[in-house]
């Protein structure tokens, strides 16, 4: 596995396997594709699998993946007109 940034390399050094490092990145890419294709209804199953798995500590992964994940989950909540959840996603994504 080739790491593109230092955050990924740090995660590998801390003992996380490549599957765990790539799980959030692949999820973000899936969410991006689903929104571009207009198949937003498929996003919920991907998000649900990440939320129920709890295979990783969210805070230890690269900031770019965390922000991207929170962006798309917030965008999905806007699509579903759940505006209170959006403010939570934005604050968590920004680290506030």
UniProtKB/TrEMBL annotation:
InterPro entries: Csn12-like. GO terms for molecular function: double-stranded DNA binding; RNA binding. This is Uncharacterized protein.
């Amino acid at each position: 596995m080739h790491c593109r940034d230092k955050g990924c390399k740090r995660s590998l050094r801390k003992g996380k396997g490549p599957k765990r490092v790539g799980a959030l990145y692949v999820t973000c890419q899936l969410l991006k594709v689903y929104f571009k294709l207009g198949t937003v209804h498929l996003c919920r199953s991907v998000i649900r699998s990440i939320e129920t798995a709890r295979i990783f500590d969210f805070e230890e992964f690269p900031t770019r993946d965390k922000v991207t994940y929170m962006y798309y989950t917030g965008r999905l909540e806007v699509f579903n007109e759940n505006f209170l959840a959006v403010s939570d996603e934005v604050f968590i994504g920004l680290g506030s």
